[in-house]
Design brief:
Blueprint lengths: L1 H54 L4 E2 L26 E4 L5 E3 H14 L17 E2 L4 E2 L1 E3 L1 H9 L1 E4 L4 E3 L3 H7 L5 H4 L18 H11 L1 H12 L5 E4 L5 E5 L2 E6 L5 H15 L1
Amino acid sequence: QLEKVRRIPILEEEIQQLENQLKEEETQRKELELRIREENENKQQLRLQQWSDLEDGKIVSGFSRYDENNVESDEFACPICAGPLEAATWAIPCKHVFCRACLESAIKSAAECSFGDPLSCVCPLCRACLYDVHTGLVKTRKADTVRRKMKKRSCTCRCGTVISLNGLRAHLRVCGSGAPELFGDEEKKKFGHEFEQPILDEEKIEALKRKEGIGKKRRNRSDSTSSAGGGSGRNRSGSVGSYNGGGLHMSVPRGYDEAEAYQRALLLSLEER
């Protein structure tokens, strides 16, 4: 007991030392958080200023938000990141243009938030559904027309480099005189790969197919061509028909692709809108 009593002052001193150490560490942590916050705020202010300069044509001559008539023009700017288009990609069927990586990220995020719902794969601008239930893919296409225009159009960075709009973003990514705070910390977007498809829920895909009646149409077509007691024949137009008791009840042209025809009709109806 006496030994324990003698150790009390020593333990109290150790406790005091630990408390002082914790206070010092807490002070250092708060100072570090404040410094990081100030650095982030300064960086954000610089980014905003560089965005403004980029839109006004002060960083790159030949790429700005406004044309020579002071009319807003964003033909070669991505609607998602607001920067120069890179690997320009059309969303199908609406044909809005985005950076491929930006569109991939938007579709992937939407699919994750909806737990793999294919109907969540929509255009970020007009909300048109990009998922094709027949192919099971999000429909996109290389915006070759936009890419050719960007390749032919040149611009000049304030570092003095003359470059085509097609390679502007890659140049700004490494140019210290251009806009290092805008693109300097982003990963290089790959040009070689196709559009990366999102991960979708198989059950929701099958439910969408049932809702569209795709499986039912295919089964009806199969049942009608192989009806019991029926035969097959050819009519004058070269289409194949099946007979039941001598009466022709179905006529399908040779080479007819129901899925392709449905897709063409869908695209046509969207264009008419």
